[in-house]
Amino acid sequence: MSESDGKRTLGLRGSRAGQVKQSFSHGRTKNVVVETKRKRVVKPDAGIVKKKPAAPASAPEEDSSRRPAGISEEEFDRRMKAVAQARKNEAVEAKRRAAIEKEREEERRRRLAEAEAKAREEQEREELARAKAEAEKRRLEEEEAARVAAEKAKAGPVSTDSGRTAVKPAPPPKRQERDARDRAKPGKGRGEVRRSGKLTLNQALAGGEGGRQRSLAAMKRKQERARKKSMADGDVREKVIRDVQVPETIVVSELANRMAERVADVVKSLMQNGMLVTQNQTIDADTAELIVTEFGHRVSRVSAADVEDVIQTEADRDEDLLPRPPVITVMGHVDHGKTSLLDAIRKTKVVAGEAGGITQHIGAYQVEARGQPLTFLDTPGHAAFTSMRSRGAQVTDIVILVVAADDAVMPQTVEAIHHAKAAEVPVIVAINKIDRPDAEPEKVRTDLLRHDVVVEKMGGEVQDVEVSAISGAGLDTLLESIALQAEILELRANPDRPASGAVIEAQLDVGRGPVATVLVQNGTLRQGDIFVVGEQWGRVRALVDDHGKRVEQAAPSVPVEVLGLNGTPEAGDVLNVVETEAQAREIAAYRADVARDMRAKSGASVTLEQMMAKAKEGDSGAELPIVVKADVQGSAEAIVQAMEKVGNEEVRVRVLHSGVGAITETDIGLAVASNALVFGFNVRANATARNTANQKGVEIRYYSVIYDLVDDVRAAASGLLSAEVREKFIGYAEIKQVFRISGVGQVAGCIVTEGVARRSADVRLLRDGVVIHQGKLKTLKRIKHEVSEVQSGQECGMAFENYQDIRAGDVIEIFEREEIERTLG
Fold first, then answer.
1. How many CA atoms lie within 13 A of 563 on its CB side?
2. Residue 622 class from Cβ within 10 Å (0-12 exposed, 13-18 middle, 19+ buried)?
3. What is the 8-class DSSP label of residue 469?
């Protein structure tokens, strides 16, 4: 096809045509037509842009004209909104970046200004130090010049041999003049000015500042030397004398730290004193005191017991004391109606829930009587609860001594009187059960006289009230007597101080953990307070009153249950509120260490001395080991004290472990290892403990009345007693002649002088009234026949087992042993 054939060349619409020459091998070329398509540029209509902000209603029509084909109107609107939002976001981001850049610029300017100010201050400080040094130097030079001039004037003119005065050579120029000339020269001396700015070509050609200059590092070294020199001219730092606390033992490194001295210096001082120790070894307080004195510090001796100094013990001021409710303890013999009387006052039925009808815990209650709150403590009356009654008397203000009118004064009544007298608290006698037909109130008053309790009707000062817990007679009079006695005592306490109180009872609750019944004696106990009680500590998680309701705080004389302890405290421990948890932990740890040391010391003394004595005697006695678990701490304590009274010199009860809470597998393991019995008082064993006990054959006994527990333990201990052996004399025989028979040995020919001689009986050989042998008969014969017994007046032959020294005239005493079972009284 040629170019002149009339046909039109194919091409693209709207394109630009051109030619490109292609080269091939062997010198061939070819022209190729190339078309470049023009890029379509869409320009917005100026009219649309101007009308859009003025007439937004026509935007959909205009946008629809710009909408590409194949896109719906909704999709186009959505895209346009997205584009507008993107532009808006870009504008906001641009503003944010501008603000950040502005802040950065301001920060740079501020730092630059601070650096310039610091540099100016440093330069002024250096100039001041330089001026001071120059002034000092000038002063010294002037003094030197004055001294030289004075020496010249004193020496006078120098004469020569010819009699003429010799002219002295001119003195060298003074140092001030040399310094002035040096300062006048550029680039040298103290007048040198640091080059600033860039070094230009003119400066380099002209010299001057363009000459060789000192580097920046050299200038900094110079400034540092000047600063050190100015500091050296100042006063020398004095040694700081410190108060060093020295405990009973201290580590060498800790001692150096408290003195703020180097550890190496302290170790060196110890070595000079003859102690080769390292920094990790401990030294005693005397050695530490010597070292502290050598270093010039003051010694303050402290002990481990000082951790309890944080507990406030100062007395309260009179203006801070406010009236508080009285604490009344109800005491008396068992079954005399103490709890029933308290129930009548409180209008409750506590006694119905007590096992066996007797109280076995201390109960703390608060009641309202005639508008005045009264705090009552109900103590057990059984003999085993002596310590509980003692605790009740120690924390009380008034003691109500309940005596049954039909039973008069009993042993626990006397014990309650002694506790009240020891605590020095007033006593109000409540003669109960006056509604009984056999009531004898006068006999009660007469019996009390024997124990120095003189009631008002007998001419004394002790109030007595006849009451009946069943009918309620005399209760109003009793409450009036309590109110009168409380008014006389003028009971006051300071509620605005850290709380302190006494633990009345403690127990391990399954759902709530360790719980302590606390009677607040001073201050106010609040929820969230940190406290220490005995060897335990904790934070008050909740306070529960005697009605089972939660309260936020407890004022003085208010009994509450405290939750939040880390362990079960001992009944009778004192609760104190401290400031921090660290103090509480430290005090509790110190008390636990002291108690552990005391137990170890007491145990060691018994093991060493008493066991050696028993070993010499050859009789160590029998023991009945037991494990006791109770519901509350007071009951466990009472059981342990009752067990100590069971036994005698031959047998005793040893309590391996006593605690609060359910019987666990650990208790069973202890019983297995020691072959002990397990007793549960108002508690039960868990499933694991029961299974282990069944497998190991450990006996678990449950009790709810302390009478039954003590009786069973006494019976078990009685079984360990050795039976009492009694000798019953049944006859005497006299040896008439001694025969020697082969195969048998010495045989005594005897005549029974009294009673009867039996083959199975024991015998004693008496010579001149002295027992020389005791044993058994080997044979008993009569007329060559072995017999079981020989009657009085008959002759027989006897031979002893393992004994041959028998003589004529000796007397044989024949007796039998009888064993009698013994019991513990």
1. 14
2. middle
3. T
